[in-house]
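Researcher: We plan to redesign the surface later, but first we want a full-length starting point. Tokens attached.
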């Protein structure tokens, strides 16, 4: 098959070929640099160690509390009622070249003696392998999930009997501000207006107490100032209650 090409088209084609060739050269150099960065990063991880630990036990035995003490921040929700932990979650602790991944399983103890010794035992038991998480990561849960679980745990502590198990806690808004602080809005959906009013309490005192306690825990968890608002919809008219500032 013969194809006739004019001189003008030939010149244009040659220019395109040169551009493609230059692009290929640039791309090749970029790939080489990317490979160098990757290899350097891998070299930096050659001597790191990690250990994965599953914490097992009876319900309300203090598994989540122990993990929080071991990693130094409350990323696993805790309360005095059973079944606070409903889903498996991981908490991460890093020290120098060693990473510990604690797996909190569904099932309160105080800090107690031996926590530091137990953590050191885990650090010494870690094997040389690539880390599973970034050094700045402290949980495999999203910030929204952490907020929901901590607020739900505070309702478990403050509400009577089975009442807290009937509500659905949803993090509607989690925002990190320029100064590093956080604004958080949580919706608490109730099966009936009667239960919603019971959760709110007289003049909103009960939900204000929960918001204040949850806000304090969130400040420790995220190591920054957290402003928490809890909204409880009643007959499609949300009532927003913000923590009183003293």
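Model: Full-length starting sequence:
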């Amino acid at each position: 098959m013969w194809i006739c090409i004019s001189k003008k088209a030939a010149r244009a084609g040659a220019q395109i070929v040169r551009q493609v060739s230059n692009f290929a050269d640039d791309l090749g150099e970029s790939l080489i640099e990317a490979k160098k960065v990757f290899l350097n990063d891998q070299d930096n991880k050659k001597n790191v160690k990690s250990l994965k630990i599953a914490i097992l036990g009876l319900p309300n035995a203090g598994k989540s509390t122990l993990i929080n003490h071991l990693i130094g921040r409350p990323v696993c929700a805790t309360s005095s009622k059973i079944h606070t932990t409903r889903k498996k979650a991981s908490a991460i602790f890093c020290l120098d070249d060693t990473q510990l991944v604690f797996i909190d399983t569904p099932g309160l103890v105080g800090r107690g003696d031996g926590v530091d010794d137990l953590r050191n035992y885990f650090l010494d038991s870690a094997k040389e392998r690539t880390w599973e998480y970034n050094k700045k990561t402290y949980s495999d849960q999203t910030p929204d999930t952490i907020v929901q679980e901590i607020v739900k745990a505070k309702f478990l502590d403050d509400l009577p009997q089975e009442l807290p198990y009937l509500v659905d806690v949803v993090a509607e808004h989690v925002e990190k501000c320029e100064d590093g602080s956080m604004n958080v809005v949580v919706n608490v959906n109730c099966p009936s207006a009667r239960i919603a009013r019971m959760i709110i309490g007289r003049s909103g005192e009960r939900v204000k107490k929960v918001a204040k306690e949850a806000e304090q825990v969130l400040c420790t968890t995220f190591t920054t100032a957290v402003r928490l608002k809890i909204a409880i919809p009643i007959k499609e008219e949300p009532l927003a209650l913000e923590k009183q500032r003293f």
